[in-house]
Amino acid sequence: MSTIQYFFIIVLILLGYRTVVKWRSRDLRFSEFIFWMALWTAVAIVVVYPKTSTLVANLLGVGRGADLVIYSSLLLIFYLLFRIFMRLKKQDTQITKLVIDSALKENNNHDSKGSN
Amino acid sequence: MAVIPAYNEEKKVGEVVSALLPYVSEVIVIDDGSSDHTATVASAAGALVYRFSINRGQGAALRAGFKKALERAADIVITFDADGQFDPADIPRLVSPIIKNEAEAVLGSRNLGTNNMPTMKKVLLSGAIKLTNLISGLSLSDTHNGLRAFSRGALEKLNLSQDRMAHASEIIDQIAEYKIKYVEVPVTLRYTEYSLKKGQNLFDYLKILADISIKKLL
């Protein structure tokens, strides 16, 4: 194996470890845990046996394995970005709702007398 | 009843509230998480003040104000800017179509009235107006004008969601969508160095455009 393969494997093991820790501490749901573990495993397989990616690539009609890896990575990244974007929008809306509700609960006139 | 969204307006909000009070039953100021004394000044001037703990934008502040005004049984709600560029003397003219039952929403228009708008602002604004008309299907002579009046019924129909500046276009969109009867009324604007500094620049207009487009796409 080449240096970059060793490096990638170490990073992937660390990511896998973090994923297990997050699952144990219940920060990840079981389905999320499976998703991330499957992703790390798939990447590990491709890193250790680069030829497998070419095999799959040819099956899908893509010339080189490395190309398939890049295409699917991009797709995954955009999908995750989209999800994060939607999540942020939702949180924004929720924060505003919270701020409005708590602001309207009491008026801010206690420092002046009888002014409403 | 008047609703004023205010963000760091301690210099002006006091006189704006005092000038408004003779024309309306109550002035509600929503302090949009200001870091200065906006809330204290407004409350000393006689407004009913509600404070956001963090800045959420003018759209969110207006929504909070509308909610409170409806809670306090307002019949007519006027939106007013805190920077002192509007003239409270326009209010009787603004609410008269609602009182006469001719409209549910009255939009102040800068371009029907007299003003000393700087040229650069005129160009930017005319672009924004054309675009808003295109999207909403209404034909207005102004957009993003903070001086408006709504009947209680109109406010109950509106279902606003934009927190930041895009709310101004959103209001117009929904007036069209919910078929709220509206008229435009000329209003006077005073462009002072102060209000211009606090106003919208080209970059802000682009941001509004982005907010609207995202909302349309989703």
Explain what you see.
With 116 residues, chain A is mainly α. Helix content of chain A is 80%, strand content 0%. Chain A has 2 domains: 1-49; 65-116. Chain A has helices spanning 3-24, 30-48, 50-60, 65-105. Chain A is elongated, with a radius of gyration of 24 Å. In chain B, 44% of the residues lie in helices and 15% in strands. Chain B has helices at residues 13-20, 38-44, 58-71, 91-99, 119-136, 152-157, 167-177, 193-198, 202-217, and strands spanning 2-6, 27-31, 48-51, 76-79, 105-109, 148-151, 182-186. Chain B has a 7-stranded mixed beta sheet, with helices on both faces. In chain B, helix 2 links the parallel strand 2 (27-31) and strand 3. The termini of chain B are far apart. The mean pLDDT of chain B is 85. Classes of the chains: A mainly alpha (116), B alpha/beta (218).
Based on CA atoms alone, the radius of gyration of chain B comes out at: 16 Å
Strand content range of chain A? under 5%
Helix content of chain B: 40-55%
- What low-confidence regions of chain A span 5 or more consecutive residues with pLDDT below 50? 111-116
Find the biggest chain interface.
Answer: A-B, 17 and 28 residues
The mean pLDDT of chain B is 85
Which structural class should the secondary elements of chain B be placed in? alpha/beta
